[in-house]
Design a protein that fits this description.
With about 325 residues, this protein is α+β, with helices and mostly antiparallel strands. The chain folds into two domains: about 110 residues, NADH Oxidase; about 180 residues, NADH Oxidase. The chain is built from nine helices and twelve strands. It has a five-stranded mixed beta sheet, covered by helices on one side. Strands 5, 6, 9, 10 and 11 form a five-stranded antiparallel beta sheet that branches. A two-stranded parallel ribbon has the order 7-8.
Length: about 325
């Protein structure tokens, strides 16, 4: 291998980290290949959700998150990547192309975020009421800004109640679509399948007092006294625009924020219902008084220990070098 190219070992290192990224219903819509000494992240259209993601927004968010993990893994190998998003000289499925940059040791922050990759998971269960420290809030805002995105933290019950109303309304719209419901249930599994959401990772069944909506991946009732936190920390991640490029960029920012959450000893779950419904998304944008576009909503706090959901084998997502 020359100093200006990646090899098969680097592809495996990058892909092993990339597959730990989040995706809608844990659909894992990505592939990876080594091409002319570069590592490419590709969208796997065969795993795009036909109902929930007909426009491909969720695929691009997920592949952006996978790209960030790959970047981080390579940086921690002392081989940081120069990244081009949607490179024009490649096929239409190529989301990102990573080529070797100048060798250097990983920074302290890269090392810390890289160590968080295998520990990160979506915690859909109730959090403890302990507030998130102000210094951590600042770190999360800076994490999004470092990836050319923004993160708004909703402060006070007025802002939180307004968001909850938008999110619950969007959730009702989605629940009224039987095709949407059937698609979601097809990605819920009772066993440890290599994709989809295990029922053990789902939120407990909704109850009237719940402020925020949760996906009904399970009908399990919650334990007595384990209601959701009354004042959750809700964060809205957004981008300057809503082109495919912006969505991929937001996916990278999302993963950086989620890893910062994990590194700080916190948990998070994603609330994409108000993003999936166009009218709700616009209402959310106006409520934030933002010129940019919301790309994801997060619930952040201190949760009970859990574990990451399964992922497919590397052999299923790697393409041989061409």
């Amino acid at each position: 291998m020359s100093a200006q190219s990646y090899g098969q070992d680097h592809l495996r290192i990058a892909a092993a980290a990339a597959i730990r990224a989040p995706s809608l219903h844990n659909s894992q819509p990505w592939r990876f290949r080594l091409h002319e000494g570069a590592i490419e992240v590709l969208a796997d259209s065969s795993r795009q959700l036909a109902v929930a993601d007909s426009a491909g927004w969720a695929v691009r968010i997920a592949c952006g998150a996978a790209t960030f993990n790959a970047r981080l893994a390579l940086a921690n190998e002392g081989l940081p990547a120069d990244v081009r998003l949607l490179p024009r000289d490649t096929g239409p499925d190529v989301i990102a192309r990573l080529t070797p940059g100048n060798r250097r040791p990983a920074s302290y922050l890269e090392d810390a975020l890289g160590a968080a990759i295998p520990r990160r998971y979506s915690n859909r269960k109730p959090f403890f009421p302990n507030p998130v420290p102000s210094e951590v809030r600042v770190q999360l805002i800076e994490a999004a800004r470092a990836e050319a995105s923004w993160l708004d933290l909703l402060v006070g019950m007025t802002a939180l109640s307004g968001f909850a109303e938008i999110a619950q309304s969007a959730d009702r719209v989605l629940r009224r679509n039987p095709q949407y419901q059937a698609e979601m249930l097809s990605w819920s599994h009772a066993d440890q399948a290599p994709d989809g959401v295990p029922v053990t990772a789902g939120a407990p069944a909704a109850e009237p007092q719940d402020l925020l909506p949760q996906r009904p991946f399970t009908d399990r009732r919650r334990a007595p006294g384990r209601d959701f936190e009354p004042e959750p920390l809700v964060a809205i991640l957004g981008s300057a625009g809503d082109r495919p490029f912006d969505q991929i960029t937001a996916g990278q920012a999302l993963q950086r924020v989620l890893l910062a959450v994990t590194d700080a000893g916190l948990d998070a779950s994603m609330l994409s219902q108000p993003i999936e419904v166009p009218a709700a998304r616009e209402q959310l944008r106006r409520s934030l008084r933002r010129s940019g576009i919301p790309q994801m909503a997060l619930r952040i706090g201190y949760g009970q220990p859990g574990r990451p959901t399964p992922r497919r084998d590397l052999a299923d997502v790697l393409a041989e070098p061409s």
